Amino acid sequence: LAIETALHEALQTGQLYLLYQPIVDIASGALHGVEALIRWHRPDGETVPPDVFIPIAEQSHLIIDIGRWVLGQALRDLALLQRSGLAALKIHVNMAASEFTSSALPQMLRTMSAELAVPPSQVVLELTESMLMRQPEQVKRVMHQLRDIGFEISLDDFGMGHSSLAMLKSLPISSLKIDRSFVRDLPTGERDRAIAQTIVGLGQHLQLEVIAEGIESAEQRAVLADCGCRFGQGWLLGRPLPLQGLIAAFPNGR
Ligand code: G
Ligand code: G
Ligand code: MN
Ligand code: NA
User: Fold this and answer.
1) Residue 213 CA to ligand 1 centre (angstroms)
2) pTM above 0.90?
3) Domain EAL, which positions (predicted)?
């Protein structure tokens, strides 16, 4: 409970902030988008990682407030990026299950994007397969509403869940993120290469963008390029950066 109180205060007093990790075209290195990653820097100097505080927030209403703050900040930053020569950039935002089952989400996002004059098509909501399991009908309804407005949806950590293929069949998804566990053992992991290649093929056939996560070496990047994987993300291609650092690192998107 102590951490919950501290987290509530963190939200009120501006201890939370977003970093942006580049998502690039693997072949050319051009910036395609960014993934917003939340950070918590406590006044005592300690940083608390999101895999610690997001699950705690998810056990209370706090996740709704945090999620709304993340979306608002990400969309304000997208508006700023558009004025900094990065007009076509997509911004990916990680969603928690309880945010996504809220029937208020589509309308809230519609209002936010209209007020900030950012096109919904540049806002990509990341979900994991496990989030789709809990209330599948409700999640599906929310997804369709979001897609009807023009927001995009990306399946995060693809390959780690339970019924990936059934989901691809019926859900309005526009991209897949190859989980970094399949990237880690490249280039030597023959099975990993086969899996990466298969996901890329699936993406091509279903007209989904494919983004490989966790690219740390030039060799991994080369194998993924060989597999026809168009987009990538990882330490090699770019660390998570504050907004101004991102703008400085990619003047005009290169
Ligand atoms: O950035 P890092 O690798 O520490 O992220 C750890 C986990 O926290 C990842 O699973 C990531 O998806 C999640 N995460 C990062 N930022 C957010 C956010 O803004 N909202 C939610 N719900 N999860 C986030
Ligand atoms: O669960 P999700 O895919 O949203 O997690 C994203 C997290 O992955 C980011 O918070 C970031 O800290 C982490 N990450 C990004 N690139 C790399 C990488 O190249 N290697 C590793 N190990 N982690 C990464
Ligand atoms: Mn993610
Ligand atoms: Na992921």
Assistant:
1) 13
2) yes
3) 1-254
Would you say the CB of residue 234 lies under 6 angstroms from ligand 2?
yes
Domain span at 85: 2-253
The CATH code of the domain that includes 217 is: 3.20.20.450
The residue whose two tokens read 């950590």 is 157
* Ramachandran angles phi, psi of 203, nearest 5°: -60, -45
Give yes or no for residue 50 CB within 6 A of ligand 1: yes
Q: Which residues contact 213 (CB under 8 A, 6 or more apart)?
A: 157, 177, 178, 179, 180, 183, 232, 233, 234
Count how many domains the chain has. Answer: 1
Supply the angle between the helices 136-149 and 105-116 in degrees, to the nearest 10. Answer: 20
pLDDT at 251 over 90: no
Sign of CA dihedral 179, 185, 186, 190: negative
Structure confidence by residue, pLDDT tens digits, 85-110: 888 999 999 999 999 998 999 999 99
Distance 166 CA to ligand 4 centre (A): 19
CA dist 244 and 235 (Å) reads 18
